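Q: What residues go here?
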């Protein structure tokens, strides 16, 4: 009996690790700047600073963007640099950031990004809106624990293509109404916040809508498409490393924390009880037959958060709906960073096919 009680207690604790909303804490600036001039920066060599592609450099008081590596040695990495909100100085320490743009849209872009509020189930939720063709809208949904500015990597492309854009927040985000239990519901309730955003753009005259979901944002948009009466108004969905099946994602997180594999199903069962969710119902791979909307799917082969096998299985289940861009060597939601040209070309082609 004591063993059963202990096992249930451990499972209940681990369920909290899965569900509880936590503060990400302050950024860790772990990479030293060795040299910098107007268009080039040399960074101490780390796994982050040597990554292929386009990345952000976050530092105290500013933000810059670096392009692909020009030179690399054991000591340093030389990359082209573009100031977005200033440049760091030699000796400063920076954080390599996958979002690639600062969180302040005024610092990130030379076009207008308006602060608005979306009326949702739990209250008004902050959003950013970019004006374009009032008939064509992209709605961006960030990943768990992320920020609205996850949309910034694609926002300039949609702006150039004259699409209107809406980067939304959802329950439990900073500055938004919280879930009544203070828990992530893994998409089970968050989809209603996407529904509110779709209703908002329909009121503004939307005739064509594309959803863009990153990581858990992919799970949330998938749940919306399967549950909402408004799903019929959505013409396409772009998913980047989507958590379409929670089992492999939770197992990957457990392995990273050193949690024994036998505890994963116990923790998942306990989290179902705590949050009132059904992981079988939230498994969009097993329920792939329910989808009717064309999908552009990105996933990196090096993803340690949501295994690429999740997207492999969805693409195999629905080849009739899915255009699959499997990006070699990309980590979680980093396909754009690793191969920006390929990513944006695929998005342009996908949007063109919807017209």
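A:
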């Amino acid at each position: 009996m004591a063993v059963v009680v202990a096992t249930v207690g451990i499972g209940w604790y681990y369920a909290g690790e899965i569900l509880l909303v936590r503060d990400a804490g302050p950024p860790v600036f772990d990479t030293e700047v060795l040299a910098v001039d107007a268009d080039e920066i040399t960074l101490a060599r780390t796994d982050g600073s040597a990554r292929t592609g386009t990345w952000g450099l976050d530092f105290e008081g500013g933000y810059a963007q670096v392009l692909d590596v020009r030179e690399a040695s054991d000591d340093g990495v030389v990359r082209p640099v573009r100031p977005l909100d200033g440049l760091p100085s030699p000796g400063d320490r920076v954080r390599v950031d996958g979002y690639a743009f600062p969180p302040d849209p005024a610092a990130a872009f030379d076009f207008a990004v308006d602060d608005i509020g979306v009326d949702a189930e739990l209250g008004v939720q902050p959003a950013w809106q970019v004006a374009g063709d009032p008939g064509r809208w992209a709605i961006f949904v960030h990943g768990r624990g992320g920020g609205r500015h996850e949309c910034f990597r694609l926002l300039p492309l949609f702006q150039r293509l004259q699409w209107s854009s809406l980067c939304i927040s959802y329950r439990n985000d900073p500055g938004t109404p919280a879930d009544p239990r203070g828990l992530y519901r893994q998409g089970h309730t968050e989809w209603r916040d996407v529904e509110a955003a779709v209703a908002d753009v329909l009121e503004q005259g939307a005739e064509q809508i594309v959803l863009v979901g990153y990581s858990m944002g992919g799970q949330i948009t998938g749940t919306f498409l399967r549950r909402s009466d408004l799903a019929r108004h959505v013409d396409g969905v772009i998913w980047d490393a989507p958590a379409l099946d929670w089992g492999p994602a939770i197992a990957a997180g457990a392995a990273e924390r050193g949690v024994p594999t036998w505890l994963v199903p116990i923790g998942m069962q306990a989290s179902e009880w705590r949050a009132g969710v059904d992981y079988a119902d939230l498994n969009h791979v097993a329920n792939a037959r329910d989808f009717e909307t064309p999908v552009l799917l990105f996933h990196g082969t090096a993803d340690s958060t949501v295994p690429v096998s999740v997207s492999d299985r969805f693409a195999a289940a629905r080849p009739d709906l899915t255009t699959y861009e499997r990006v070699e060597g990309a980590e979680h939601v980093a396909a754009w960073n690793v191969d920006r040209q390929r990513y944006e070309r695929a998005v342009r082609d996908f949007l063109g096919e919807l017209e």
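A: Context that may help when evaluating the design: Confidence is low (pLDDT under 50) at residues 1-8. Residues 121 and 192 are 7 Å apart (CA to CA).
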